[in-house]
Amino acid sequence: MVTRRFTDDVPEPQGSPPNEQSPAVQESPPQQAIVQPLQQREPAQPAPASPAAPSTRASSGRQQGAHLPRTLTQVMSEANERVVQGDLVDYVPMPTGFDPFDGYIGGGLRKTELVLLGGAQGIGKTIATLQIARNIASRQGQYAFYLSYEHTEAHLMHRLLCLESVDPPEIDLSRGIRLRDLYQIIVAQRAKQFMGRDGGQGSLQQILRDNPKTAAALGRMVKYADRMIMVKASPAVTTLRAIKEMTARLCDATGGNVTLFVDYLQKVAVHPERPRDENDKVTIIVEGLKDIALSLDIPVWSIVASDREGLKSKRIHLFHLRGSSALDYESDIAVIMNNKYQIMSKDHVTFNPYTAKQFRNWVVWTIEKNRAGRAMIDMEFQLYGQHFAFDPKGQKVQQQLIDDKVIES
Q: How many C-beta atoms surround the C-beta of residue 80 within 10 A?
């Protein structure tokens, strides 16, 4: 495979058939557009638009003119031209696949919006975010760009295999595999080869394809693997500028059909700026992520960690997220996750401690901010933690939950 620089032209897809000897995912132009390591990258140059991709040209034009003054007449003319060309992406939301969450936020994620997801550690923030990225990448023509400061790309791939084994939204637990099951399948099959036994296979994809427990999951994952782009980010070098450069080039390569996911916000590198404290750092990061959403005309979804006080409280709220008030000001949508069992009101007359135990695996999603719709809405989704999946078919919470008054009493 020829190594390409970020400044190279994006090649047109070739019509050659895939290699029938290997089920490996074929490399696509967006994957070739991923940035080189910062210490090896040359100064970024504007990527020329392909004459065969008018949607790419339109997206690039909007990005280049994002911070230039324009009259209202020019704005109306540009919007009219896009509609005439059939470009309706500014008016059609991108569903996350979670119902009723999509309904409450106006149908899904929208371009230029910044969505924040907060909660305690282990509540399922990464599970939900990766599942939403998978749902978006599963749609033809849409790409998910997932930056993880916590996990390697290989670990995220293993999580996706476990998720695909239960096949949300179907949630077939009878075919579900756990992470340790996946590791055992791979190690056992490789051991057969080393011991010279018949049937031993050396290829990871061959092992997954031949095993009945993983074959279907692999088949589902391969369908969107070209559109799921992942980066193991570094808290030392993956700065806001690097994130914006990588995302901008993916926008050029995909016609702007990219959704950016950041896991998680407080770990984004900030330099050469010198923030005074944690609040100042978070302000710089959240304003930078909002700028990426606005200037590149894409949705941005970011996980946010809770502060120490929030971890001690019975119910985490938006003001418990680690950092400054800029989280509230800059975000368009803010969702807070809490374990349902822990925040059910014990003072309610209908509370039954025995029946309440069934809610330990349910997570309440609270929309605490919604710039374009209703806020303070509680929904619940069942979590299958061993399979790294939520049941995306949720419902509005019917039981009474604790509020600030109960917390203070």
A: 10
Tens digit of each residue's pLDDT (9 = 90 or more) over 36-60: 443 434 444 444 433 334 444 445 5
Quick check: is 58 in a domain?
Answer: no
Distance CA 17, CA 34 (A): 24
> Under a CB-based contact definition with an 8 Å cutoff, are residues 9 and 56 in contact?
no
Domain membership of residue 252 as a residue range: 92-177+213-408
pLDDT, tens digit (0-9, with 9 covering 90-100), for 142-188? 999 999 999 999 999 999 999 999 999 999 999 999 999 999 998 88
The verdict on residue 13 lying in a domain is no
Question: What pTM value is reported for the model?
Answer: 0.81
Give the CA radius of gyration of the chain: 23
Packing angle of the helix pair 278-296, 240-254 (nearest 10 deg): 20
Going by C-alpha positions, the residue among 205, 204, 203, 253 that lies closest to residue 229 is 253
Rounded Cα gap, residues 81 and 73, in angstroms: 12
Q: Is 258 a member of any domain? A: yes
Q: Does residue 120 fall inside a structural domain?
A: yes
CB atoms within 10 A of CB 26: 14
| Bridge partners, 305 (sequence order) | 119
For residue 11, give the 3-state DSSP assignment: coil
- Classify residue 357 as left (phi > 0), alpha (psi -120 to 50) or beta: alpha
For residue 97, the domain's CATH number is 3.40.50.300
What totals of helices (H) and strands (E) does the chain contain, helices first?
A: 16, 10
Number of domains within the chain: 1
Cis peptide before 51 (omega within 30 of 0): no
Strands (E), 315-404: 333-339, 362-370, 377-384, 389-390, 395-396
